[in-house]
Write a sequence for this structure.
């Protein structure tokens, strides 16, 4: 009985040790780009040793080995793989310093080996570096903007890569965060009654990010903002309400938009069949947040992208600031210009026809006329 008890105790201890070992990072994580060629060449031996160190988390030792390979065997067939492995080691190490070094190494790899298959993977890693550092819409959007740029670069430079579909979805999620930030600013102006600023923000948002999950809400506030700005903006208000009916036919605001169009005596458009099918697909594939997601979201740094679109082409340009419609863009004389032009004088001018005033200076006045008379002293 005592022997069985000891065996049970040792078994529990072994399980706990195994769990702690796995959780503390001692479990080996396989490298994504190994060289499967079986050879005893010294450069291959150095590469395999470095990959073994990367898989076991010994990143500094791995980089020393890879730099030895690059400096010693400058004609090696594994040179490109070694340079990529250095970038991967920084990427796995993580941290702000490690990710910055990884981005620089990936950029160098793409510059020197743009035609290799791994170049698309390197660009995808650069996109992921900024994607993982994105913050919520009401915070600094530096990494969100950079992630947007890098993912678009992947789709432009490597459109046929196997990483393109994943980058396209990442781009939709990134633009969901950027659009949410713009929507919050526009909604703030709308709530405060600053309708020209609200319309400026929401107009740019709905034109640039039509896949935004709350684009119908943005269009409703946009149309109402224009309606409150006076009769001169009546056509713009009607266009915003018409877009809700046409481009977001399953929105809960469709009936209200139709009522506004009817009150304005404007035609009610038919729903776009492509937009209808897209909204059906989005509703069927939307991932609902969990019960505790709102609670833990307070403590989470990264944004919630569960409402991001799953289909449709993302925007391929950067959102540029726009000028409010209340700012005049032309003057009475036409479009103002800051250009300065010069042209030669072809005919006689005042310098040729009029006498030079410097040759006949005005005569000085007499002293008694120049100075005023002094009052007599008492």
């Amino acid at each position: 009985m005592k022997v069985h008890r000891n065996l049970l105790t040792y078994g529990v201890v072994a399980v706990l040790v195994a769990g702690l070992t796995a959780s503390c990072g001692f479990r080996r994580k396989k490298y994504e780009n190994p060289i499967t060629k079986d050879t005893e060449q010294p450069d291959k031996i150095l590469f395999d040793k470095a990959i073994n160190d990367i898989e076991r988390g010994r990143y500094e030792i791995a980089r020393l080995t890879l730099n030895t390979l690059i400096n010693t065997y400058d004609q090696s067939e594994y040179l490109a793989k070694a340079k990529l492995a250095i970038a991967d080691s920084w990427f796995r190490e993580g941290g702000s310093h490690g990710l910055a070094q990884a981005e620089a190494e990936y950029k160098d790899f793409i510059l020197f080996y743009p035609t290799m298959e791994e170049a698309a993977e390197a660009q995808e890693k650069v996109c992921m570096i900024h994607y993982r550092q994105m913050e919520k819409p009401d915070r600094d959007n530096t990494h969100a903007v950079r992630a947007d740029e890098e993912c678009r670069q992947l789709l432009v430079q490597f459109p046929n890569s196997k990483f393109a579909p994943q980058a396209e979805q990442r781009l939709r999620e990134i633009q969901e965060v950027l659009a949410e930030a713009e929507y919050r600013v526009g909604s703030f102006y709308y709530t405060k009654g600053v309708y020209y600023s609200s319309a400026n923000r929401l107009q740019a948002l709905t034109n640039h990010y039509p896949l935004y999950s709350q684009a119908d809400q943005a269009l409703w506030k946009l149309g109402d903002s224009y309606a409150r700005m006076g009769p001169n903006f009546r056509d713009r208000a009607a266009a915003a309400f018409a877009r809700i009916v046409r481009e977001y036919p399953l929105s809960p605001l469709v009936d209200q938009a139709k009522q506004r169009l009817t009150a304005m005596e404007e035609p009610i458009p038919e729903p776009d069949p492509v937009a209808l099918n897209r909204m059906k697909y989005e509703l069927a594939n939307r991932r609902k947040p969990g019960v505790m997601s709102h609670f833990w979201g307070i403590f989470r740094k990264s944004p919630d992208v569960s409402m991001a679109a799953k289909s449709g082409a993302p925007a391929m340009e950067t959102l540029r600031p726009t000028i409010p419609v209340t700012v005049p863009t032309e003057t009475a004389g036409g479009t103002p210009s800051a250009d300065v032009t010069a042209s030669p004088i072809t005919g006689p001018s005042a310098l040729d026809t009029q006498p030079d005033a410097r040759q006949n200076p005005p005569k000085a006045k007499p002293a008694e006329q120049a100075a005023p008379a002094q009052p007599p002293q008492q």
